[in-house]
Amino acid sequence: MSKVISGFSKFSKEEKITWLAANYFSNQQEIIKTLKQYWNEDSALQQLHDDFIENTITNFYMPYGIAPNFVINGKEMVIPMVVEESSVVAAASLVAKFWSTRGGFKASVVSTKKIGQVHFMYQGKKSDLSTYFEAKKPKLLEATAAITKNMEKRGGGILDIQLVDKTDDLSNYYQLFVTFETKDSMGANFINSCLEAMANEFRNESVEIVMSILSNYVPECLVRAEVSCKVEELGGDNPRRFAKKFEQAVKIAAVEPYRAVTHNKGIMNGIDSVVLATGNDFRAIEAGAHAYAAKDGKYKSLTHCEITNGIFKFWIEIPLAVGTVGGLTALHPMAKLSLDMMNRPNARELMEIMATAGLAQNFAALRALTTKGIQHGHMKMHLMNILNQLGANEQQKDCIVKQFENKTVSHSAVVEAFNQLKN
Ligand code: MEV
Q: Is 49 a catalytic residue?
């Protein structure tokens, strides 16, 4: 019998769960119990979460950790991170401490422009379209006046509207290419509302609007974060060799896309964690970051490294369209707490913090990769996960962690050690 259902969203939460359990599980009672186990006792708080999306049946926990010891532009701060990967917060904290005694992180916003497009088809003469566009331009702005009023009071709004001819790429295809400043909001709703109002004003018998939507490619909403110190200050047995190898690792990621993707994934471990903790849109950030990494026609590293005159310099340049007002940042109590923890940054400051988290994460990964190898640290955290899965108590954990201090962690070796200990 088909499980395709109509009117599902109208079901109560209980009904949805019962339907799911009956149609997709054999152990129905167990499933229902697990789902309900994650409901919040505070019904108002649960309702808040239920209402974020449609068909909510429960909550999905992710660890919320904090990385202390960050010094960014001279300010000490603790960064909240939501991530499931065991070594990410540990790595961020270690690196934050490392750089805190070497001048800290310096971060600055390069630009904050965002982009939206009205995509349309037009078959007539291009010169007629240009004339129509020039005559319409003031009306396009007028059409958005009600939407832009508040944004303009905050110093934002529409910066520019251009007519773009894309007919070389696709017959009859043109765009209105619009640039926005959205200040402390990510601005997706604002931009999309403006674009739709413009599209309505712009359409006529020969202008066929296809769609109006913001772009998540924001190469001009750019932030830079950097660390630097004398090579000797990098510490370790042989700081010069370390610096050189580190630089080589970054250069490999600049020329080798297979490596660049993993390199950038490590950066996004740091950035996405903060994006999630602050209630921002990690899919938008991911899409924009990777598009930027490919801006020169080849996918490359988002970080760069240079050693000149005995100075080691490592930096990131990345587009980050984020908000500190509106959206989930205002609605989700934990997103609000994250922002409060960081002394309520504005969007520019949050861009700087996120870029710093990405740079720190990449430093940690490359330091591990070019020295002890990545598995050393990963496996320590992995060991804890395996022990938790096995249901080890604190005493058993301590004992097995000691046993594996100088041993390679593998799932089977840990299971064996645990079984031996139990027996
Ligand atoms: C793992 O999540 C991230 C790394 O693979 C990043 C890297 O290789 O640079 C360790």
A: no
* 100: number of Cβ within 10 Å: 16
Dihedral pair phi/psi, residue 302, rounded to 5°: -90, -10
Catalytic residue among 181, 247, 272, 281: 281
Condensed to tens digits (0 to 9), the pLDDT of residues 75-112 reads 999 999 999 998 999 999 999 999 999 999 999 999 99
Instruction: List, for residues 281-308, the tens digit of each pLDDT value.
Output: 999 999 999 999 999 999 999 999 999 9
Strand 64-72, strand 75-82: pairing: antiparallel
Residue pair 321/303 in contact by the 8 Å Cβ criterion: no
Residues 52-62 as b or e (16 or more Cβ within 10 Å = b): eeeeebbeeee
**Closest-lying ligand 1 atom to the alpha carbon of residue 263:** 9
Residue showing tokens 């359990």 = 21
